[in-house]
Amino acid sequence: MTVHISEIQASLHVKMESYNTLDFLFKYEGNDNGQAFEKHFKANISGTGDLPQTGKVDISIENTFRETPRIITVHVDMDRSADPKKLKIEVTPEPNHLYVFDINYNADLQNPKHGDFTLDITTPTKMASPWQHLSGKWNIENQDEIELTFKLGEITYTATGKLTLKESNIVVTSSNSEENFILEWHFETADSSVEYFAKLGKESDYSLLKLKGTKTAPGHANIEGSFKAGSLMANEFIFTTEAHTENGKYTSKGTFTYGDKSGNYHIDDLHYDSATKSAAFEGKFNSNISGLEVIAISSKYDFDHKFVIHGSATFNDAESKLDINIAELYPESSHNSIELNIPVFGPDYRHTQFTFGHDFSNDRTKSLTAVAKFGQNESHMKVSWNHSENLDIVEGSVEIKSFFGEINISASFDLSNHEDMHAELKYLRAHDSQNHRIHVKWSWKTTTEHFESDITADSSFNILNHARVYATADYSDNVHLVCGLEWNDKKIEFVNDITKNGFSVTINSPFEHFELIELKVNYDLASETKKIDLAYKRGDNEVNMETVFNVVSETEATLDFKLTTPLEVIKLVHIVASINAQKAHVEFQRNDDKYSLDGDVDFKADKSSVDMTFTSPEGQVIKVAASYDMEDFIAATGTAAHKLASLELHFEEHAVNFNFNGYRNSDRLYVDIQGDSTFELVKKTHLKIDTALHTESHDSNIEMQVNDFEFSMKNHFEKEDDEHFKFKVQLVSTLTPLPELVLGFGRKESEYFVTVGYGGDKEITFSIEGKDGYKSGFSGKIDLPVLGVSEMEYEVEYGFENDNELHMDIEFEFGDDREIEAKFVYDSEGIQARFNSLLTGDHSIRVRRSISAQEFSTEVALDDYSLKLRGGFSNEDTKYGALVEGEVFGQRFLFDSLFQSEGAHYSEGRLIILTPFQVLNKIGGLFTWSNVNNKIEGHTEIYLPSYTTPKFIGEIRLDLNEKIKGHVLFDLAGQEFIFKTDLVGSSFEQGYEGNVEIFTPFHALSHASLSGNFKINGFSSLESDVKLTTPFATHEFVAKYTFVSNKVSVDFNLKSETLAHEIHTQFTLEGFGTDHKKISASINENQVSLEVEHSLPTNLVGKLIVTFQGQVHTLSGKVIIMDNHIQTELEVESGFFNGNRGIKIDVHVLDPNYRHFSLDVALTTSETHAIHFELDVKTGFHATVKIDTPLFPKTTATFNLAPANVELIINTPTGVHKVKLNWRMTYRMPADYLIHLEVSSPLFPVEYVANVAFVGDWSNMQVKVELQEGSATHLFEGSITSSKTKGHISFTIMTPFKGFNKVAFETSLDFSDDVELNVIMSHGEVFNTLDVILNKNDRSFTAEAKTPYLPGGQASAEAKLTGNVNKNMQIKMALKTGEHAISGTLNVKVNSVKDIEANMKIITPFKGYKKMTFHAFYTEDDMKHILVYSNKPLNYRVELHFGDSNNTMKGELTLVTPFTNFENIKAKLEVPLNTFAPSIAANVYVDGDSYGGNFGLRTKAPYELTAGYHVAELPSAKFHIRIDSSFISLFA
To answer: Does this model's pTM top 0.85?
Structure first.
């Protein structure tokens, strides 16, 4: 296989034939900065004889990737046909270095309980070493008398003695040591005693563990023991304990001794009285350890109708105390306190006090108080509330002070008088000199002559610091209506006044040019002379209209209409009309234009309206109409909405329409004012007020519109009686930050509810209902549609179970069997809290902490686990650090950090981390550094997470006063590396003279010294004369370098004891920086010269001459660069071959955008070899390769790539080889994947066609793979379904290959209600099943296995479960078949819904089936994993891994069956998702034979295409090409 990437070519070659031949070659060729290079790794293995019993093997390894290429040869002779068995290995890593390993052994590898061996090692140094001769023997047939012997050189090691699990006594002796090594242990148990003993190590340095316990009498026991941890402990730690229990009282005493340290303890009293709920403890500890001479602890508590704790702890002379006195635990009221005084906590926290209490003695007024004081700091929470007897008046407040600041919340409402209702909410928080406040007020007032509604909200938030919506109506005389909207500093207000003779509207707004709008209309329609006057004003713009109708009779009248506006087109409109019968004469004037019209007229008039419509013969219409009837509206006698006033005007293309509809009575007010015109000033206005004037159930609305601005408020009020009412208001505006706001509250019997929303279904609803007048708790419902929470029910209960037990239960139910439960109990056992949910399970928690400026301590307990932390800080001007010491689940941790700096003269630091984990016991390090008077000293230690190199030490000491003198030391796990220097000189220009020494732990380089002198003058010159001395040889170096003008010269001489001749090297470069360069170099008699001339950038001519061992080799040529054409011609002449060689390379660019090019390469010897390559990426990707050479037949290959289609065609004289692949992905989600592959070749007897389909996602996926092999069809069908509680997998394989026929597998797991596991596997007509059902309701269990491999064909079991079904359970059962009884044990462990395991062991009386095991596992992380298997005699195993990882669908299946030729089947599949970069790989292994294929396409740089297949022993094929983006950019 060969891969080209830009200018790099890599090739891989592998060939293997049985045990006899293996060839491996990986070659890498390219160009680095114009220099061609080639690297390779090659291995050749060949064998002869009857391998692997007898014969010879030769191995050759060549590696040029190393900086120094190396060839290694290995020769192996083996003879394992007789005893002793022989194996001889010869390794030559480099010339003249031979290592020989000669091995002889006698052993039965099937039963290696005894045997012997010898090993002789020969090295090229011929130096004698003890490890070059090894031998040994062993015999462990008799466990009471084992014998092991190992000989290393002249030293013999022997181990003899007894070796069993319960007892061991092994003695190891050495011929060069008088001290033995001991390995001893024994374990003994009896009815009244137990003893454990273990000892390991030398007699002078050992590890020991001894423990003995004896029960001397009922309630009395003695324990004695000792332990020693090798060299880490200089002495044994010996301890004794006596314990006695009598009448519920426990006493104990004991001693300990460690070297000269000793001590004792006494527990004089430890008891608990359940009847009085009291306990006591008295203990004392004495020792001769400094600082721990005396420790005394005393504590008592009394929970008999109280909560009283007194405790003290004394360390030498320092005493700390704790007093808790909670004696008032009454349901009506309480007042209790806790005080803590501990000196080590410092002045800020040494004194701590907690006070808490409650007062429920008054049925209508209640309060809760909790206060905590830490030194001078105080935190508290105070809650109080009161209400009326009917709960229609409620007031409450919450006051909180903590590290969050001060928070005050107060709320009240008064609904006792339905004609005057109001509510108020206040929130205030002060923290870090910042105050945040929210204040909301609502009011509703109504009388027979007045109505008022107001909602006001003020806050400290900039986005909306003020908002108000209000409406008032006064109809004591005339009608006066006011409604408005305020937000921040902006305000919109409508004012409407209605009288018997007209009405007026005033609008105030914050919009530019609309700050004030005034409209006034007066009507006089009762007499024969009817007048309508209109005045409109907006800023400086005024509109006035005067209309006078003089009605003479029903058919005769005159009209005088005058209109003035600020608009240029109609500054003045004057219409004068004479009406007689149905004809009219009209004089029309608009600005300075006047004209007369005659035409038809429709005229009507009465006491409240007038209407004239004039139509000219040309169809021009002029209409003036008005009506006004307000008597019943002002008198409040209306019953239905009707027209109260109107005004309509039409002339030319202009129109004005105004309608005032409504009615009013004692129960309701309805006003609907609408106006529209063709004028831009005000195109549309609308005001609507619809509200009831009583306190019964009703709906009320307020709507306002001015042009594009809209606002509406809808109120809904329901009332059955004083205990059943509901109020809801909806605000919609086009200008406020919230386009819609919904507020509501109400009461249903004793339940209150509040609604807040902002449109759609996004209303948050909260309801609360007290229990026993909130004396014992409350409950309610919550809707949070944003979070998907609907009708979530909650319940809070609190109260006293008895006089000394306070409890609180909190429960949330989500409606789909999900719930959250929390319980808090404060009783004689202390304070505890529990939390339980379906997601997290059941947990309990406890938290304690103490923090000061310099130190802290913390304890957190979760369930049965605890975390303890304690530490301190060091923050000074020049020193910063922290110490954290902790205990996690009983394991100790330490974090110690420090950094100190005093400028450039001195610094030190450390970071030490201690953990209980192996290898990571101690990690980190420390350092010191000083630099005073040019004298440098430093030291560092680094602790590494490694067994082999756990510690690193570094040290430096240098004197830099006109010299470099000192040393540098590195210590790595006890191995020292030392660098010493003694050089005299002041600078590199003046030169240094002296010596440098290096010491290492390696034998080959234990000591090396470098002496001499050197001088460096920038880049212009260098001179040095140096002598290097090592343990094996001495080397002398003389070097000189000069750089003058455009010439560089180098001279180098080397004289060494390891070289037969002195080496002299010269190098010269002339023409540096010019167009004509000449380079010459020589090593002794061998020479190289290169001459290059490049007068033009497009023309390069050069010649290279190499003289090696008298032979001359010449390479010359030229490169010509033209437009769209690059031509290269090379000529080679060498003594390695006869005649000359010519190479010609032509590159043609066939597209101006570099998307189409061709490459031709020709090699001319006695014959011509040619290669043509063409690439076209203008439409898709099309590549063609033609090879014409006498070495093999002429071949043409074409590769075409298009979207969803790939094709490869290779034409040879023997036929056409073709591979075609296309794929398709549907656009629905989840996407379906369809793949089609065709392969045909003269190499195959038939054509191959494959189809693959993936339908659905992992929750419901169908997979189908079909392979058509000529007339034979191979089919794989499978399905996967999964949910949170269910999973099902099934597949079927049908193929005529090797008589496979049909195999089916199906498994399902369901734990939604009951836990059910079903497994079915069939081969042909043979079925094997396993069914397991666990019924959670009656805790019953059934399991049944059916298989023809069992006598009787089946086995079944029934049992009742014990244990926790959701965690662990074990079932011991008796099973019966038709003839025999079977016993077994089933274990099921449900760690979580993502981690379930089950195993079943069955013991039978059948030969060959004495013991059978079945196992099943289901786990889920990023992938889902299912494992089902059974051991002998069934030997079934099914392992499946599937899921999505990094946007790739992955699946892997492994089957192990007892069927011949199908013992092992493996399949692997990968399909990418959500990206167009198909990469599909599938592999199936059947009895060690592999069947599969792969296809990959990468459409982003670097671009890559790969494809291949393999079918058991048939020939396989692979293709891979990869190109960089720079390659494609040539044709972009």
So the answer is: no
